[in-house]
Structure formats: C-alpha cells, structure tokens
Fold:
Amino acid sequence: MTPWHSKDAAAALAELGSDAKVGLGSAEAAARLAAHGPNEVALEAGRGPLRMLAAQFADVMILVLVVAAIVSGVLGEIVDTVAILVIVLLNAAVGAGQEYRAQRAIAALRRMAAPRARVVRDGADRIVCAREVVPGDLVRIEAGDVVPADLRLLETSDLQVDESALTGESLAVDKASHALDAADAPIAERSNIAFKSTSVVRGRGTGVTVATAAATQIGHIAELLRSGRETRTPLQERLARFGRRLALIILVICAVVFGVGLLQGQPPLLMFLTSVSLAVAAVPEALPAVVTISLALGARKLARQRALVRRLPAVEALGSVTYICSDKTGTLTQNRMTVSAVETAEGSHETLPGADAGPLWQRVGETMALNNDLPPGDVAAGDPTERALVEAAEAAGFRRDELGRQLPRVADAPFDSTRKRMTTVHRREHGAVVLVKGAPEEVLTRCAAALTRHGPAALDRAAFLARADALARQGYRVLALATRELDAPPDAPPASLERELTFLALVGMTDPLRPESAQAVADCRTAGIVPVMVTGDHPDTARRIAADLGMDGDGDRLLGAKDLAALSDAALRERVRHVRVYARVDPEQKIRIVEALQDSGEYVAMTGDGVNDAPALERAAIGVAMGKGGTDVAREAADIVLLDDNFATIVSAVREGRRIYDDIRKFIKYTLTSNSGEVWTLFLAPLLGLPIPLLPIQILWINLVTDGLPGLALSAEPAERDVMRRPPRPPGESVFARGLWQHMLWVGLLIGGLALTAQAWGHGRGVDYWQTMVFTTLVMAQLFHALAIRSDRDSLLRRGLASNPLLLAAVLLTLTAQLAIIYVPALQPVFKTASLPLPDLLGCIALGAVTLVAVEAEKWLVRHRGLYAGADHAGPT
Structure:
C-alpha cells in the first residue's frame, strides 16, 4: 500500500472520500466518528468501582481490624464482629466514593481542557473538539495551533511545525504539499504530513485527516505521552510525609495503651481491638485523598467561573501569587477594536470615506478589507485588529468578499512579532498590487512616497511618525498602510517586495477597557498582589490605559522593550519590582521579566496567548492562557485557561484558590484535632488510674461519623471576609503554619481533658453508663469544634449558622445519629451504650460546649492581641 506521503493530494482525497472545498458532510462525519471512535490517545484506565472498594482494604490497619473482628466472632462476640465489619465496610464505601468522585472530577477537567480544531464540514469552517476529528476531515491549521490528527497537507503558506514531541528535533520543520517520491522516507522527512500533537509555529495550511487516535504516529508512542497518572501536589506530599511520621507516634501510643491495659487486668482481646481501633481512627490516611477531592472540586467550581484549571497544583498555588503579569488586549480591555481615526496625506478623518471618494481612499479601503487572515465569509471571527479594519471598510462600502474575487490573493507574508507587518499580493487585470499593514515605524521606513488624490507625492516620514506617536499618546492602536504596484504577479517571495512602498494612511483604533478591570486591579492591590501590564502596544498607549486602570505607569514605572533589552539580568532584577507597565515587549522578553521577578523572590502568574508566550507560561509559577483568543500551544503550556480572556477572572481565581486552601486547612484542623482528642483520652486515662474510656466500636463510630460528615462539609465553607485583604501566602509555608499545629495540640488536649472529666464524673458516682458519658462528651466536643473553626478570626455569631448549610446539616445529622445509638434499644447492644438521664446528657453537652467557648476565646486573641501573628511559617511537616 502506498503511504500517504507518497500519494498526491487528489489521490489522498479520493481514497478518503473527501472534497478539497466541501470537506465531509455532517452526517458522514458523525458516522465515521461512530465507526472509528474518538480522536484521542487512550489514557491509563482509572480503577473501576469494585477495584476502588477493594483498595480500601489494602491498608494494614484495616486488615488487622478485620482479622480482629473475625477473632471476636470465633470467641463468641458475634455482635462486636458484625458491628465492626459493618463500620469497616461503611468506611470503605465512603473512601471508594471519595476516590470515584475525585476521578470523575478530574476526568471532567480533562474533557473541558480538550484542544480544538478548525475543520471544513458541509463547505463551511467549524470549530470542533479535537476528539471529534475523523479520517477524511479537512482541517485548517495556523500558527499557534496544535495539530489535531495526522494530516496529508493539501495547501501550505510559509508553514513550519515543531515536531520535537515526536522526533526530538528541536528546530521547526518546513512543510509543503507536494507528494514525496521516497515511500520509505523517515518520519522526520515527511514534509507533507503534519502529525498529531505537534505545534504550528509559523504560517498556515490545510490538510486532509489520514489517521486519528491510536493510528497516528504519536499514538504509536502513546506510552511517552500518557497523562493518566496525576502528579501529587506539594500539599499532598507534605501531608503524606506528616501522616507517616504521625503513624509512628500513634503506634507507640497504641503500644503504651495496650501495655497499660494489660497491667490493669483488661482482657487482651479488648486491649488489642482498642489499640487497633485507636490507630485506625488517629492516623489521617485519608488526608491526601481529601486534598485531591477538594482541589478537583475547587477546580470544577473555577471552571464555572470561567477559569479552567489544567493542573491541580495551580489551585493550591493561587494563594501564593504576589505578581500578576497580564497582557492588555482582550484581558484588561474588551478586545473589540474600532477604527476611530484615519490620517492620510490629504488630511484626517474619523471614519473611512466611501469608495467614490477617489483612488487614495479606494486603495485604503482595499488594504483594510483584504490584508488579513480572517476566515472566509466570517467577519465576526479572527484577530480583533483585523476585524476592526474589515468592519470599518465594509461600513464604507468596501465588501471584502467582492474585492477578494476582483483581486484574488496569490501570495502573502504573514505578520509575526519580529517583522511587525503583514504583506499580501493580489492579482489584478493588469499586473498585481502589494498591500502592507504593520507598525508605523516598520512600514514608514520602507516607503518612498505618499499617495494623494493627484498620485504619489513626497513623503514627510518624520511628520507621520510624529502623528503616529500623538495618536498613541491618546490611547490609539496605530497601524500604517502602504501599497506597491507591480506590472505582473511576482515570482519573488512577498517579503522581498516590502520596499519602495507608497504610504497610504495611518489608522488609529481604540479598545475600551472591560468594565470590571479597574475594580479587579484595585482588588489585587488590596490582596497584596501587584498587577503588572505587559503589552506590545506603544508606551504612550500603555501609559494611558494604565492610568485608567489605576496602575502607576509614569516615569521609571514604565519600561519599553528597547530599554529592557539594554538592561543586564542583574540590572533588570534591580528595577523589576518598581516597574508596573512593560510596553512594546516581544513575547520572548516575557521570560526575562518572569525570571527577574522570580529571582527577586516573587511568585508570578503570567498571562499569554501566542506561540512565543509558551516558554514564559511554563516558566511562571502559574501560567494563564487565553481560552477565546489564545493559541493551542499557549493553552497546552498553561496551568489555567481563561475561558473569557478576562483579567477579573484571574482575580476571581485567586480568591477561589485562597478559599479552597483555607477550607483544606479547616478540614485538617478539624480532623487532626479530633484525632488528637481521642488519642489523649485513651492515652491519659490509664496513666491517671482510670479504666479504658472507650470501646473499639465507639472509637470506630467517631472516626466514621463524627470526624467524617462535618469534616467533609467544612470543605464547602464560604470564603472568609478578609480572604482578599491579606497578603499572599508564602509558597514554602507549611499547611500547619499560622497557629494550626498549636491549635491542634492545645484543643486536642482540651477535648481529651473534657472527656476524662466526664469519665471521672460518671465513674466516681459509680453509674454504669459512665462510658456512654465519655463517648457522648467526645462527640459533642468535636461537633462544637466544627462549628467554632469555620473561621480563623470571625466569631460563630458573625459567621452565621446558616452560611454553610452543608455543615449545619452534617452537625444535625451526626447529633441525631449519636442520640439514636444512645436511646434506641436495638442499637444500644451494638455500640455498648446506655440511656443517659437528661441531667447527664445536658452535662455532656455543656462539657462539649467548653470547646466552642475556648476556640472563640482563641479567635478573640487572634483578632485583638495578634495571637499566632509571629508563628513560624515552617510548622510541622
């Protein structure tokens, strides 16, 4: 069989049943998608529900508990056996459910992050998810796109593709459309094939899809590209390390409890079950999983707020951002450019005159209408600057489609950040015409004359450059238009024709601010985050926009590209903390800005949308790509994609990221403090000469219900009032910093002391339900603790009981369940409880409420006396 690269374009299209103009029909594409399956390389399959459930029993302590339950059954303690096994199964079901929920959340994020493709269906260009591309689809690619499938190229225009992901070749490869003679040409030499997952770095092209999914070349080496394994976040790593250390301590405490119980004459089986139950309850083996769930669900919430998180660690890192380096166009502004000034050698106009105004305006209108890469027939799509020019031309009567038929394009040199201009060549009845648009300083230097109503005249280049500067100072985006007449269509490359041009006009465009941008900038400052504008626009334009936003872009607060290039790395590090606006910056210079800030100890979020922005996005602590106007390459390199390209969305994401991290800390504070209280109760009771205060089934109940439901509900706690009025969290700060480990220690001791007080009170009176009193006091103390720690500073009354309905429901449900196992006769034998007289029940509740009072006092000291303000940032790890 002849390989695709050796077939000519017509043969490839015929074999695939496609058409070079119409592409596939929608019905045929749907049928092929059903036949061939989605265009995606299979990821590592997630564990199914049964495997998730079975994995919960892989923990050594759970297995020991199961063995102990079986031993209890053999010794005749059938009720204990059944109760323990039921709780173990419930615990496993909860754990499996959490894993399943996290897996589904992460899978949903992957689906939302899927790349897009522009295909031709039914003769029209359409944007579809890349997984929907099928063999035979006609696909258009351009600079910034990730190739969605293996394509046999049919048309190319200065097309270069980065194939390093496939071949390891670091240099971009030139692509062409002609068939190759060598059927056995190596992959790196198949110049008429664009391979799936490679990146277009220059030009554009059209190709027919010859392979999708596993049939692609990248599919053959899918093992290198698997992304099914989620990397653990730094927070997960720290918690797992802490959990391992805590486990060793708990095992020692369990051994002490077991030994002291034997010395007191307690039954060995009871002490064994008690020690194992304590270890299971105290070791926070679920913490890393809970962090995954919190981050994944938080990321889904951010997606609903128009910020798509592609890498979970970014959610954790958002709270540490100190600088946000943002592009201007489309992020701080509306990205809806409008032509507001046209300057020619004949004078100034606010709008473009009609086609009947003379040959000068005819040529200006032709240039504005034809010198662009907007999709055919779709003025509403594409680059906003080009869209503004076309809309202004069409408003004056210069119809793009009609002019395109009269002056068909035969060649072009696309715009890029180095050339800062675009040239198109159009065939006309007698010869050809060259149309050029670009930065005034780049175009005017290539002009030899200016067009007037009487023909070419002398060009006052300095005057027009000065006028361009004046327009820029007024906030305009300024482009220069030029032309050149040719006697015949040229054989030379279009770029070589950019000389001896005739100047046509300066065009001034404005892009109004987004209404929410100024407030978002103010919110950044309040939150201790420095907003910085990084733009390719003129310094005067950038300065005016910065002033409107409340940024300080005057004096040494603004740095242009030329001055930036002249600075050494050391000198840039000296200035970078003072600069608020970077103007005329090339995408490559963004990397220097990021590195200089990071070398100065800052934690940087950087926005970008182009191919050349990708290295800066990868280098930044958090790379933020544009979802609407950005390129696939930028999105692939980013940690977060803004679905609305809005700076305010970045600020919202920071706010949400801070809330998520705070809620993870609250879960940890609640769980480990509760565990600490149980450990102190069981550890200190024998040392004080008291009998074992809790039975194994009661310990497991507390671990499953009291710790579980309120703890998970804390992860839905609304953001605190000061979440955006406090400085960013240091990146290296431990999750236990700012008083958390001190709180865990002293409140855990307090809860243990309250439980032992209940034990001494009941045991000293000789009542036979003293163990139920200890059990109930522990549960009540933990529930009051859950309510108290909803805020690190605000009182419960100010926070409001109803502001987190999930937590309120969890507390009430837990309280109801606890009262049921105390007072329902059928449950009393299972949990070894007895009905408490009302005074004793109220006494247990009152003891538990001491926790609420104590924690509220702690928060008062935090607010008024700066408690923990100087706490070590490291904390236990």
